[in-house]
Write a structure and sequence with these properties.
Elements: H1 5-17, H2 20-27, H3 31-45, E1 50-53, E2 56-59, H4 61-84, E3 93-98, H5 102-117, E4 122-127, H6 130-139, E5 144-149, E6 164-172, E7 174-178, E8 188-190, H7 191-195, E9 198-201, E10 222-226, H8 230-238, E11 244-246, E12 258-264, E13 270-277, H9 284-301
Parallel strand pairs: 3-4, 3-5, 8-12, 9-10
Antiparallel strand pairs: 1-2, 5-13, 6-13, 7-11, 7-12
Helix pairs in contact: 1-2, 1-3, 1-4, 1-6, 2-3, 5-9
Length: 302
């Protein structure tokens, strides 16, 4: 058997999505069709490309090696298709991923500046969890990703080659409370007080735990509302439905009726926002976007 472009596309999609089922949904295939393509690639390569585990699949060493070449081949085919159909731009395309709160406070401002200074550079964006964005970087479907990490700020994965992470912004967690409620009249709250509050959180997943609840809160927090979108969570706070975690970096876009307060008597919860990419040379369009992201983050930290 020979390797085909279809097989390489399936390889990349499975590597990015983490399961045959998710890859099939993204490609519009059946799961059995994805399984057949992977089996054909493995037969052609003569090695196992994925390790199967209960939660999905993970690339083997040979699988990672083949993926690197697949990314180059698929990008070259895509570039040729754009050129043949007159869709190529002088400025180039950059694919950016980001964790949700970075959208309004880092990404939007950077894109506005990039459009002004480099109007020919075209940027596509996607929001996602850290694991999903890291897989997309590895699969070559993203060029850059804005990610958040907590101490000790290790690499977001343990694969080779190691990802390059450039710190953009240091921020800390606070608690968003209704401004007209009893907690909103104070500058800080205690963990014991928060343990008695109703919480608004993002739904947990296999990729990431429950988001929006203060880390290490004593007891079992009462999560009354779940919302994947962070802005929805903040508007629920404004409506008096509960409290959620947030960062002071969100102050420029904080809904009215919400106040951020510190948590007293516990260690400060610090988060680092970093620009992450694969190692190697960076194309000029990606360099221009990275510079815009740095300037936007510097303005927020100032």
């Amino acid at each position: 058997m020979e390797m085909t472009l279809v097989g390489l596309r399936v390889l990349r999609e499975v590597a990015e999505r983490g399961t045959f089922t998710a890859a099939a949904e993204a490609l519009g295939y059946t799961q059995s069709a994805v399984s057949r393509q992977v089996a054909g690639l493995e037969q052609a390569a003569g090695v196992r490309l994925f390790d199967r585990h209960p939660g999905g699949v993970r690339l083997t060493g040979p699988g990672r090696a083949l993926l690197r070449h697949a990314v180059v081949a698929l990008d070259a085919v895509a570039a040729a298709d754009e050129e043949l159909h007159g869709a190529a731009t002088d400025g180039g395309v950059v694919r950016l991923g980001f964790f949700p709160p970075a959208g309004p406070v880092v990404v939007a401002g950077a894109l506005a500046a990039l459009r002004r200074d480099h109007p020919r550079v075209r940027v596509t964006t996607r929001e996602g969890t850290t694991p999903s964005l890291v897989r997309a970087l590895r699969a070559g479907t993203l060029d850059l990703a804005v990610l958040s990490s907590r101490p000790p700020h290790r690499s977001p994965d343990t694969e080779d080659p190691p990802l390059r992470a450039e710190p953009l912004l240091r921020t800390r967690l606070a608690v968003a409370v209704p401004a007209d409620g009893p907690l909103g009249a104070r500058g800080h709250v205690t963990a014991e007080e928060l343990a008695r509050e109703p919480w608004i959180a993002g739904p947990g997943s296999a990729d990431e735990p429950l988001l929006g609840v203060w880390p290490g809160l004593p007891g079992r927090p009462a999560v009354r509302h779940t919302a994947r979108d962070w802005l929805t969570r903040l508007h629920l706070v404004a409506a008096g439905a509960g409290v959620t975690t947030a960062t002071p970096a969100l102050l420029p876009v904080l809904p009215s009726g919400v106040r951020l307060v510190d948590v007293a008597g516990v260690a400060e919860e610090v988060r680092r926002v970093s620009l992450v990419r694969m190692p190697g040379a960076v194309a000029a369009p990606a360099q221009a976007l990275a510079a815009a992201l740095r300037r936007q983050a510097a303005g927020l930290s100032g």
